[in-house]
């Protein structure tokens, strides 16, 4: 029992006691894709309610594993390198929760044919979040893709100051090429209306929730916008627990090449 950071701390202490250099690593927005792709899929019905039976992929706000410095003679470089080991992976291997050792440098270069568990570790830190609209007849429409959201930041404790962190994301990812990677990623749909939801930074719990939905029509024709708002409580793995508030769909027209700010306001009694 316990959380992944507790297991990682124990594994780090055990490794060091055996003389193996080890450190604890935290991954933000760590994913577990169950369909073998590098897409974290979220499915919605026509009323924009999440479909739990289809949303089997998991994404956690953070996950913690270990890196051990060791030599791997079975790899082509045969040199010392950081190796990922994880005592609390989401998926099981041979009936045991274990992952690795997996080379960090090989992972960065997407060389996934080497042991151990390279494809699984790679999908944990790479991927897009794809939103799908599921119609009653079973057909699906891609609504939006949030690119490079999985594994958004990877950190460890700084060697020079124990109260500071060291960003080691570049050890895992080639950030200069991340936007050019194709892999199994779903491409963002070519929509001609862009939306941006803005939330005030100085709001406090118990205040009115004031949001602005900024819409931009890039087409040469008038577009009809259907706006709906839903508030819900979610778990640390981004799974919906309970609905707090649902605002019915509102229709409005947006002229060609025009911008519009659509205000959305929720009173405290509607979400508390």
From TrEMBL:
Segment forming the signal sequence: 1-19
Domain Transglutaminase-like, first and last residues per copy: 2-89
Protein name (database record): Transglutaminase-like domain-containing protein
Keyword Amino-acid biosynthesis in annotation: no
UniProt keyword terms in alphabetical order: Signal
Source species: Rotaria socialis
Pfam family, one: Transglut_C
Recorded GO MF terms: protein-glutamine gamma-glutamyltransferase activity
InterPro entries, per database record: Ig-like_fold (IPR013783), Papain-like_cys_pep_sf (IPR038765), Transglutaminase (IPR050779), Transglutaminase-like (IPR002931), Transglutaminase-like_sf (IPR036985), Transglutaminase_C (IPR008958), Transglutaminase_C_sf (IPR036238)
